[in-house]
Amino acid sequence: MLYAGSRAMTKAYQPMLKELGLTYPQYLVMMVLWEWAQSQPQEPTVKMLGARLRLDSGTLTPLLKRLEQQGLVTRRRDDEDERRVLVAATEQGCALEATAASWVSQAAGSLGSLGLDVGALRQDLKGLLDVLSQGAKD
C-alpha cells in the first residue's frame, strides 16, 4: 500500500514537475533547500541534505550536479572546512518556490476537502518512517 501511495503521489505531482522542469527527487531537494533557507542562517552541507532526505551521497551528488547544471543550485567548498560542500538554491532556483507552493496548496486543499488531516497524515508517515529506519539500523 505504501508503494502504491508513493506512486500515486508522484503521479499527482507530474503536472507541477513538468511545469518546474524537475524530476520528483530534484523537487524534494529543492523543497528542502527552500525550507532550509527560511529557517537556518547557513547553507546546508551535502551531508545534512542527505540526512534530511534520507539519501546517500551516491544518490544525492548526481541530483545536485544536474540541478547545478540547470542553474538552480550552487555547490561550494566551506571556507572553514574544505571537506564540506555547501549547497544553496540560486535566484533562479528560489523563483520556482512560488509556483511549487501554489501547486502544493491546491493539493493540500484537495486532500482537506476529502476530510483528510494533512498535518496528522504527515506526522503519522514520519513516525512510520522513523520506526522503519530505526529497525533497519538494528
Concise structural overview:
The chain is mainly alpha-helical. 72% of the residues lie in helices and 7% in strands.
Structural class, by secondary structure, is mainly alpha
Low-confidence residue ranges: none
CATH architecture: Orthogonal Bundle
What is the element string, with H for helices and E for strands? HHHHEEHH
GO molecular function: DNA binding; DNA-binding transcription factor activity
Domain HTH marR-type: 1-130
Pfam families: Staph_reg_Sar_Rot
Organism: Pseudomaricurvus hydrocarbonicus
Describe this structure in words.
With about 140 residues, the chain is mainly α. It has a single domain (about 20-130), classed as Arc Repressor Mutant, subunit A (Orthogonal Bundle). Helices cover about 70% and strands about 5% of the residues. It contains six helices and two strands; from the N terminus they run H-H-H-H-E-E-H-H. The protein has a two-stranded antiparallel sheet with strand order 1-2. It is globular. The protein starts with a helix and ends with a helix.
